[in-house]
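go over whats below:
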Amino acid sequence: MKELTFESWQQYLAFIQHKFMQKGHKKGLEGDALAEYVNKHEQNAAVVWAENDGDTCIKQQGYITLLVWKDEQGQRRIGRGRPKKSSCEKLNHSIHVRLDDAAYAKLNSYCQEKKLDLSEAIRFLIDTL
C-alpha cells in the first residue's frame, strides 16, 4: 500500500501530470498520443478526487491522504484517510483501570489544574516514577 498526501487539487493534478508524462515517455508516446494519454489520466484523477471528496477534506483537515493498493484481481484501489503515525509516535498498549470516587476526583482535579487530558496526565505521572 502506498500513501500519497496532498494539500490541494493543484498539487494532486501536478503529481498526476508529472507521473503520467514520465510513464508516457517510457511507453514511447510523443506529441498528441502523449497529450491524450496524460489527459485521460487527468480526467481519472478528477473522478478520484470527486469520489473521495477531496475539497471537503482539504477544508476540514488541510490535506487529503490517498491510499493506493491492489485488490484481489490486481486492480488498484484508492481510499482516503489520515496519514499513519510514525512508529515512534504510536502508543501500542492500552490499559483499563477502575478507580473509586475519591481517586477519580483527585485525578480529574489534577487534570484540570495542569490542563491535561486523562491519558496525558496518566502518561506524565508514569514518567515521573
Notes: The two ends are 40 Å apart (CA to CA). The chain has two domains: 2-81, 91-129.
